[in-house]
## 1
Amino acid sequence: MSPTEPLRRSDFRFAHRLRVRWVEVDLQHIVFNGHYLMYFDTAIADYWRALGLPYQASMQQLGGDLYVRKATVEYHASARYDEQLEVAIRCQHIGNSSIRFACAIFRAEQLLISGELVYVFADPATQTSRPVPRSLREILLGYEAGETMVELRSGSWAELGEAAGAIRTEVFVQEQQIPAELEWDEADATCLHAVAFNRLGMALATGRLLPAEQGAAKIGRMAVVAPMRGSQVGRLVLEALVEAARRRGDREVLLHAQRSAIGFYRRAGFADRGEPFEEAGIPHLEMVRPL
């Protein structure tokens, strides 16, 4: 694509959707100009999720952080209250220590705003620049080339227990304050476990499939690390376990969904069954999906 050609929605693999809020509109009834940079920044956070990278933990592992060196905005048309927009981001160039992103905001196919964000990878303590790590460079280039960012592994507790256990400890024991003695049981030894890993080898999500009872499979211990919620990584784990149940000939798969996750499971084809109940002090609902 020539630098003089206008940006198109099809030029971007990634886009973050948002709706203009009343507070973002000025006295001219259009989005205040400074908010477009906020839209870019919001989309960048979601871009890292698309890469399978929980931002803070990933930067810590990479030994640095990213600092904005330059931000530009070009205005082509205005967005208005309650309109739905797509904020598109693309990694345009990676230098020795800098990363340049092309940014664009679309209303349907109409280009409203274009811009550029330039980050420098640097030492967090001194804020002196460092070379962009090879692993981060490969992840960015791979994503823009259409590659898959997350690897799904299935296996026994002996194979995946360390990674699965770390996620479950973080989510259930530390975050949700479920007593540790309720989290761990003997069923782990007989279950099929699934864990999603990013390209840095970090475990992002897990779940387990219990042995079937009378043709009904049960999925449990579904957990996704907090920064990755809202991405597709939880759905990847869920579908892997559902497919494993289908392959072994189960007629249906059921699970006990926490109330906050009911919408997630409904979108994955699960239906409510029975009345709500409490488990480990948390409201749950049994849900089922035929195979």
Note: The chain has seven helices and 13 strands.
## 2
Amino acid sequence: MTEVAAVEPRLADVAYEQVECKSALNPVKNMMFSWSLNPYTGCEHRCAFCYVRAFERRADRPSDDRYGRTIRVKVNVASVLRSELARKSWKKETVVVGAATDPYQPAEGRFKLTRQCLQVLREFSNPTAMITRGPMIIRDVDVLGELARRAELHITFSIPTLDDEIWRRTEPGTAHPRQRLKAVEKLVTAGIDVGVGMAPILPGLSDRPELIEDVVKAARAAGATGLWAAMLHLKDGTREHFMSVLDRHWPELVPRYERAYRDRAYLPQFFGESTMHEVARLRSLHGVSDRRRVILKPPPEPEQLSLLN
């Protein structure tokens, strides 16, 4: 009988630490956007490949299996945001919600800080973008719909793969990808601009053409307004945890990753070039746009992430 490696449970014991923030809007440099907003610090989704683990390590916070077990809840974030948007110096630049944590992680069901912030952004008709893996966003379709009528709004749903095994083992705290697709469809039906981010693509795992095509076809069926993709990157902090997950579930791939990512965080272009060409081919075949808005590519460097928390 084949021994099956244990999978980290989707729901884990999490401690919530309620804190007051001094600022809500975070200036970001060298990115596709200038301002971010994160109602929470830390993320219960605990994705094995999350680039925020790299910053957590640099900040002397856990980046291993303990990451995502303590969430800092910025209880006053909406009121601080209102004060900042009311300033005469504010130029109504796009605010990206969820650059360093998922705004619709389970904590949102209890604290509703993302909804409160969206209500403030709606009040000021401020351009907004979001990235999430959380179908809970459907709860706020009323606020999102009104915001979309007043200002530019774009939402990206992160759906790296539809493969059950890869999803369970690399995204332990997230809802099933098909639940996310249902959320995409509902948001699109409500008149909201929603795209899919197929990232990160994992070499030797989710880069198989048939798995890529599954996501592209599903995105089109859900009515997504575009799809973009990016390969996995591994900075210190993320690298150690991801490699431990790889060793636990796919040990035969460890040597391949050690060669590909030796002394580097980003996959050399020639390693991922054929995969990205395949994504482009499948987008064209299935009539899915590659149109991208202001969402996270390339991912922030750790020193930039200090501005995202």
Note: The chain has twelve helices and ten strands.
## 3
Amino acid sequence: MILSDQDIKKYIAEGKIQVYPAPDFEAQLGPCSLDLHLGSSFKVFRQSQYPYIDLKRKINLEEVMEEIQVAEDGGPFILQPKDFVLAITKESFTLPNDLMGRLDGRSSLGRLGMVVHSTAARFDPGWSGKAVMELGNLGIMPVVLYSGMRVCALTFETLSSPCETPYGTKSTHKYASQESPQASKINKEFEGK
């Protein structure tokens, strides 16, 4: 079951869902979602000596990306047509063991050709950290984004029972407690094979 606006407020007030900084419900709360803001950190692919990304190759994918910081609360970032970047939310959040989150882009940005989250929109029970978004510009014109703008909506769904293994409790949980955009760690799945 998806939480309603009144349940989202209740869960946050009770500390069951933790959001920092505390949300402004008047501006961020929808009927069944909580809007999150764009952070000030972006990761972009840079020119590389590698002609392609080979998931079995032992390379540090962080080395083929570069982090760009813009000013907090209003710094601009230009997303060019056909560009793909990783971005982070301003807010960090923590989910309990019986609740999952789902991130969706805002329709107003989608109508400009912008994809806010191309895949992996689920945040497992036990998640704690900032959400990393996979931004893409499918349009033909550059789009200027500003840190601090509302960029996505988070919905919350209850589980049939609390999970036995919350996210972040196993070494295979690669992105636990992230505070900045991290490159893909999928090549770690091929280690020792």
Note: The CA atoms of residues 8 and 52 lie 43 Å apart.
